[in-house]
């Protein structure tokens, strides 16, 4: 059996896109559970107004569950521009200095960019 490896980065820069992103991530994980020949790495990068999603309890509940298999990143620059400090970001979310550089770096490392 050949193991297929895929890397995906989801970009969230609008608050109203969080439900769609989380649905996409969940759908990928459900499909992955049915295919033992596939390995997927996923990262969700939030910047701009999307950073505010980390303050919504229902989103945080889903992130807590998904963080076992998905990485979540928060842009520090967006946090500053929206008046957020690291204490307000859920534990397990990795704070990156600049979200757009994080997105570019992930793409340089083979991640496929998806934006709902």
Automatic annotation (TrEMBL):
InterPro entries from the UniProt entry? DsrEFH-like, Sulphur_relay_DsrE/F-like
Q: Which Pfam families match?
A: DsrE (PF02635)
Q: What is this protein called?
A: Sulfur reduction protein DsrE
Native species: Levilactobacillus bambusae
